[in-house]
Specification:
By secondary structure, the protein is an alpha+beta fold. The chain is built from 25 helices and 24 strands. The strands form 4 sheets. It has a 6-stranded mixed barrel. About 0% of the residues have low confidence.
């Protein structure tokens, strides 16, 4: 039966090629999105029993503080007193500089980890070993674990690196191990240091640790929470000055912590779109099979007359469908491989967590096979049942249409379904494309195009004293400002669109406190030249002088939002004072000396477009080891990088540069995922449109071909060719209009669930909906006009002969 089917498909090459292409594209798009969904949502994290791993966070309900970290001393007490966990481990982010003779210093993202973290995760080192308890002690030996990526790129995969020393932050560290490929816990780290050798170990108020625990086999999350709450209450009673109110804990799973809430929504919508494309492809092939069955009705009738039962006829036609599904599977797999690679290549390096991967693995291949066979059976069964029906005597008559009327209705219904599904796909795609475009064109309050940004890392013994860091930054800026292409520059703990700064509750002098917790503001430390570099005009008051900006003067610039929020008018803000729990300055009153415009310094969030409340204080209040550098350049901002490198090298050759980007690049990194969403949905929409267009044209073309004799009679009797074309076009537009109407009802359901992801465009935007509807009606018009015009040009004599 299969051999007979293959011979039949070979004889009908055009039919076979079109069917295989339609199914292949449908399977390819569907498998691509499944691979993404599998890698992000379905695959467990790459650790043994990942569901038993939880994240521990502390809460202070009296002060309305949620999801805080854990202090080093509290962690030590939790580990000793709890009865719910196999172990509790912690990590905290660090930046390090690796130096070597004859090489430029390089900065890497690192983490301080407790010695038992990798045991908790169940991830052994591939060379060497993990930290020991003796190494994870205050004053312990200087040791380091390397990531596989760093070991390959910087040390050429040398197995002898274990036991050697490398210089980190000016101090020699012994390499004790190399971690497995792709491992970068918790967030693409390149190396790991013992946690206890970091700072912040001496106070319970410093809740900075990101803490993990593995539940014991018989313990639930609720039981573990109660156990920790009991310990927290005991610590609050024992240490009231630091732990009062910190009596509640919260446990979250890895998925709850690491997976942004919008990602499952987006992937679900992608899967819906891909399934719609597959449905369009299936309806195309079902239409082709119906048309093919109509052409073979005499063959089927003859076989029936010779004794073939209806079941045998159905099996033969269903086998044909299954063979088509099998032949389309390789094309679908190839397209899915291309799709997954394109999606991976469209994402910026280091922006996707190391534990998320999508590949064409056995799960994706199995999914491809299942949908190929399943859809083949689905779209082939009904046409097979239709083809096996009908009156044998009528079917054997020459020129009799048999049950073609019912088949025509089915083909028309499939056209309607294709148009409606295509509209849903196109509306979703266009809204995401418009969102990305709106984000790209949004006004951020300043012009980022002339700005170049980078980070310096001032680590090691020479910079243990904060004043040394301040003087180094001042020297580097002085050298930079003398360069001809540099118009202005400033340093800060903040970089436009790349984050940074600080913040905390604010108290306004002379204003009674609001009920509830005090309002919070953002605080950014800046050197002189900040406003000039950013292109800000001073709306009221004045800027910092050079001496003020490089000293701990209790002065501040505020943005308009802060001025209006607390003093109603920017003019009234001058000379006013505020105090903020930030920057080791909680007891200092800062005096406002100037007001600057609002700006979206942290990028635009589609879910919250309100400007943030910001106070700018002298850099000396926030001089950290990591110092941001922003430079306004005359010309191409990227061209200043060699000049900046030279200025820093002249000042201190051991200071590394990292995150070297134009401000425009940093801005794009804030919303690149929306561009990816638009690209994926756009591809889904275009494929759906092409498949729907082929389906509509094919059905209408076939319908016209069945009416060639009728058209010939009409023309022979004097009917105007234009009237005949109108008749056919009217039918095509009727089908298209019904499909558009159904699509306009279905599309808002999808866009409603995605409304939090759109920016400056309504999920029910009439322009988008109307434009797509008109476009699809135009497609329906062309799909009906072209075959109708071709039919009216046939010689009536030839048409009447049925040739």
């Amino acid at each position: 039966m299969v051999r007979h089917t293959l011979r039949g498909l070979w004889r009908s090459k055009a039919f076979s090629i079109v069917a295989i292409l339609c199914l292949g594209f449908g399977i390819g798009v569907n498998t691509t999105i499944f691979s993404v969904m599998d890698g992000v949502l379905l695959k467990p994290y790459p650790y043994p029993d990942p569901d038993r791993i939880v994240i521990l966070q502390t809460q202070n309900r009296k002060e309305q503080v949620e999801d805080a970290g854990v202090s080093f001393l509290d962690l030590r007490d939790w580990k000793a007193a709890n009865s719910s966990f196999v172990t509790i481990a912690a990590t905290t982010g660090r930046s390090v500089t690796i130096t070597a003779p004859g090489a430029d210093p390089e900065r890497y993202s690192a983490a301080g980890v407790s010695w038992d973290l990798f045991t908790l995760l169940g991830t052994p080192a591939i060379y060497g070993q993990h930290f020991t308890p003796e190494q994870d002690q205050v004053g312990g030996p200087a040791v380091v674990l390397l990531s596989h990526d760093l070991w390959m790129r910087r040390y050429q995969s040398d197995p002898a690196m274990v036991g050697k020393t490398i210089v980190i932050n000016g101090r020699a560290h012994e390499v004790v191990g190399v971690m497995p490929p792709r491992f970068g816990f918790p967030n693409n780290q390149k190396l790991w240091l013992p946690l206890a050798q970091g700072s912040g170990n001496d106070t319970r108020e410093n809740r900075y640790l990101f803490t993990f625990a593995r539940l014991k086999p018989d313990v639930t999350v609720s039981q573990a929470t109660q156990n920790l709450d009991t310990i927290a209450a005991q610590l609050a009673a024992q240490y009231p000055s630091t732990n009062a109110g910190w009596t509640n804990t919260r446990l979250r799973t890895l998925r709850e912590e690491f997976l942004p809430p919008e990602v499952p929504i987006v992937i679900a919508l992608m899967m819906v779109g891909a399934t719609l494309v597959l449905a369009i492809a299936c309806s195309n092939v079902a239409n082709l099979l119906l048309a093919r069955a109509t052409g073979r009705r005499r063959e089927i009738s003859v076989r029936t007359a010779l004794g073939a039962g209806r079941g045998r006829i159905v099996r033969q036609l269903l086998t044909e469908s299954l063979v088509l599904g099998g032949l389309s599977l390789p094309l679908g797999i190839v397209l899915a491989q291309v799709g997954t690679r394109l999606i991976s290549g469209a994402m910026p390096p280091e922006q996707v967590p190391y534990y998320i991967t999508w590949d064409m693995d056995w799960r994706s291949l199995a999914y491809s096979a299942v949908i190929a066979i399943g859809t083949a059976a689905l779209f082939g069964l009904f046409p097979a049942l239709q083809a096996s029906r009908g009156n044998l005597h009528d079917s054997l008559k020459e020129g009799t249409r048999g049950n073609s009327a019912s088949r025509s209705k089915l083909r028309s219904a499939l056209v309607v379904a294709q148009v409606s599904l295509a509209l849903v796909c196109l509306v979703g795609a266009l809204l995401f494309v418009r969102t990305f475009r709106n984000l790209d064109l949004a006004d951020v309050g300043f012009d980022p195009r002339p700005l170049m940004t980078m980070r310096m890392y001032l680590a090691g013994e020479p910079y243990d004293v904060p004043d040394a860091r301040l003087r180094r930054v001042e020297d580097i800026l002085t050298r930079l400002e003398s360069a001809g292409a540099v118009q202005a520059a400033f340093s800060s703990n903040f970089i436009p669109f790349a984050g940074g700064g600080g913040g905390g509750p604010v108290i306004i002098d002379g204003r009674p406190p609001d009920p509830g917790p005090p309002p919070g503001i953002n605080v950014i430390g800046v050197t002189p030249g900040f406003a000039r570099t950013m292109g800000f005009s001073i709306l009221r008051g004045r800027d910092f002088t050079r001496s003020e900006g490089f000293s701990k003067q209790t002065l501040a610039l505020v943005n308009e939002r802060m001025a209006r929020r607390f003093w109603k008018d920017p003019e009234d803000a001058l000379g006013r004072r505020f105090r903020v729990q930030c920057c080791n300055a909680g007891n200092e009153w800062f005096t406002v000396i100037g007001v600057v415009p609002d700006a979206s310094l942290f990028g635009i969030d589609p879910g919250n477009t309100e400007p943030v409340t910001v106070a700018y204080v002298p850099y000396a209040w926030q001089q950290l080891l990591s110092a941001g550098l922003t430079i306004r350049v005359a010309g191409d901002p990227a061209s200043i990088t060699p000049t900046a490198r030279a200025a820093i090298r002249e000042s201190d050759p051991n200071v590394p540069l990292s995150q070297i980007r134009t401000a425009e690049e940093s801005r794009w990194l804030r919303y690149w995922q929306y561009g990816l969403y638009g690209w994926i949905f756009g591809t889904i929409g275009i494929v759906g449109l092409l498949l729907a267009s082929v389906g509509v044209y094919g059905v209408l073309s076939y319908s016209v071909s069945q009416r060639t004799q009728e058209i010939g009679v009409r023309v022979a009797l004097g009917a105007d060719r234009g009237d005949v074309i109108k008749l056919v076009v009217k039918y095509g537009l009727l089908l298209g209009g019904i499909g558009v109407g159904i699509g306009l009802v279905l599309a808002p359901v999808m866009t409603y669930f995605a409304q939090s992801l759109f920016f400056n465009v309504s999920p029910f935007d009439p322009i988008t909906f109307g434009g797509v509807a008109v476009f699809l009606l135009a497609v329906a018009f062309l799909a009906s006009y072209l075959p109708a015009r071709r039919a009216t040009r046939v010689n009536p004599v030839i048409a009447l002969r049925g040739e």
